[in-house]
Specification:
With 152 residues, this protein is α/β, with parallel strands linked by helices. It contains five helices and seven strands; from the N terminus they run ααββαββαβαββ. The model has no long low-confidence stretch (mean pLDDT 90). Helix 3 links the parallel strand 2 and strand 3. The protein has a single domain, classed as Vaccinia Virus protein VP39 (Rossmann fold).
Length: 152
């Protein structure tokens, strides 16, 4: 059992408010309306109803059991989707937990048609490495995270 399986029952209570704040910034910044959205590291996907066409992927069965949405079990380094499958790919405060974050970024870029938003916890161990990898993305400073935006 991984850490997120263990905390899944209280995750929304702990993080809902701060995650919603980031999601609203991402929706506004990318002008998300009816697009197909992939959420990498979706956790409980409690905000999925903010999107018209939502798919979430996470590697925590415990978190996905709490989701009431279109979610699948999988990992960010090997997304089980065709190239350019989604209009928009988001990852909210999850990438810093991925060991192969460089591969995960390439996977998100591969399955996206160009719009990507990735928030990363500023205090995370790999923050500087991730920031370097996303150097061409626009950066939006948030309280605990930086939100990296790509709109190619």
């Amino acid at each position: 059992m991984n850490y997120y399986d263990e905390i899944s029952s209280g995750y929304n209570e702990l993080h809902k408010e701060e995650q919603l704040k980031k999601i609203k910034i991402i929706i506004k910044e990318l002008n998300i309306t009816n697009e197909m959205v992939l959420d990498v590291g979706c956790g409980t996907a409690f905000y999925s109803d903010l999107f018209k066409d939502y798919t979430g992927i996470d590697n925590s069965e415990g978190m996905l059991e709490k989701a009431n949405s279109n979610v699948i079990l999988g990992n960010a380094e090997e997304l089980p989707f065709e190239d350019d499958s989604f209009d928009i790919v988001i990852s909210v405060t999850a990438l810093h937990n991925v060991k192969g974050f460089k591969k995960a970024i390439k996977e998100m870029e591969r399955v996206s048609k160009g719009k990507i938003a990735i928030s990363v916890l500023k205090k995370s161990k790999h923050f500087d490495e991730i920031k370097k990898e996303l150097k061409d993305y626009k950066q939006i400073e948030e309280e605990k995270d930086i939100i990296f935006i790509n709109q190619t």
